[in-house]
Amino acid sequence: MVKTGIIWSDQYLEYNLGEGHPMNPKRLTIPYQLFKSLELFELPEIQILTPSPATDSDILLYHSLPYLKAMKALSEAGGGARLRMGLGTGDCPVFPEMHEAARLVVGGALEGVKRIQNGDVQQAFAILGGLHHAFEDRAAGFCYYNDVVIAIKYLQQEYGIKRVLYIDTDVHHGDGVLHAFYRDKKVLAISTHESGRYLFPGTGHHDEIGENEGLGYTINIPFFPGTWDNLYIMTFENIVPCIWEEFDPEFVIWQCGADGHYRDFLGHLALTTKVYSYLGKRIAELSRLGSAQGRLLLLGGGGYNPDSVARVWLAILASITGVEIPKMSPPEWIDYCLQEFNFEVSPSLEDPELDWRKLDGYPFIEDEILEATHESIRYLKKVLSDIPDWKGCKQFLQI
Ligand SMILES: [Zn+2]
Q: Taking the C-alpha atoms of 300, 304, 306 and 311 in order, what is their torsion angle to the nearest 10 degrees?
């Protein structure tokens, strides 16, 4: 039996960027209540893990001392701004206890790392985490401390892990993480996202493939707005599994943001729960091959429609654990969301087959999407087949 930890703390709800801000606690409470209604926490294969706040020295594994000091000072003051550090902006407002809330997120990722490395669980899912836009001395995109980079550095320093695979399927490019390891071959960082031509943070083009020693160890797979399930899956299969097996990671971190879902408020992809069930199954399967032996840490990432977030994360959790879930939403969850938030959730947990062409707000041309995607695949196969370490990927030669 594969044991899975779910990392949760009620204090995660204090990571509250404000009413009306997309990053508000409702997007955590609603998924958490769904898991509870389905009695997932009662299952023998699932264990709730409670995080402790990260220490200063954990945070300094990546962030600069002036940035840490600014975070603490503004947090204590409960207001103000350091705009050069991205603090006090619309995306990253200063809020009371900001440092405390942000360091608990890092603590969640580290709890996952430790419990997996100790063998208490094989895989773990930190519901709040994957704050991939934070840089060494700058907050961005709702992210203050980069729990992903810190977790990877912790794995390297505390456990001597030599090969970490980071896969980021959030709708936004995983810029902070990919930047941190851009010249580093110890981390294979793969990000699939909506093209930076259309969405924040504007980076993650297919020709950004790493530099120096890290050349070929950063892989960006941008998608055109409107990209649908089968096209996403075909692209993933063409690039990811082969390079994954060649790299043979010892530990896998997956930022599994739910904002690629077609009903998300920020992204413009047309993905349904089918893609997330597929990703869960495929990523768990790949993680169980070779040196990683199933060591997989999931970090929740983005997702701003709480109904989509709940159903996407559930699809992922069900497919990484093999736990059967019902087709319909539990009535007590539907009632809870109505009573607590006056929020109506979908009656069905799985999305129906979607004809994305009929969606409002998707005025995209199918041929253009196909052409842009095939161009990315051709480009990536061509440049990656020239990287000596990926010579074993025979699939890259079939263009
Ligand atoms: Zn996102």
A: -50
Q: How far is the CA of 170 from the centre of ligand 1 (A)?
A: 5
Task: Please report, for the domain that includes residue 129, its CATH number.
Answer: 3.40.800.20
Is pTM, for the whole model, over 0.70?
A: yes
Q: Can you tell me whether residue 351 is helix, strand or coil?
A: coil
For 225-266, how does the pLDDT look when each residue is reduced to its tens digit (9 = 90+)?
999 999 999 999 999 999 999 999 999 999 999 999 999 999
Distance, in Å, from the CA atom of 18 to the CA atom of 303, rounded to the nearest integer, reads 16
For ligand 1, an ion, list residues with CB under 5 A.
Answer: 170, 172, 257, 259, 302
What is the rounded distance in angstroms from the CA atom of residue 106 to the CA atom of residue 28? Answer: 16
> How many CB atoms are located within 10 Å of the residue 393 CB?
19
Q: Cα–Cα–Cα angle for 332, 338, 339, nearest 5°?
A: 85
Q: How many CB atoms lie within 10 A of CB 66?
A: 11
Is 206 a known active-site residue? no
Separation of CA 119 and ligand 1 centre (Å)? 30
Range of the domain at 356: 4-397
How many domains does the chain fold into? 1
Which of 63, 99, 132, 133 is catalytic? The answer is: 133
> Residue 202 C-alpha to ligand 1 middle, in angstroms?
12
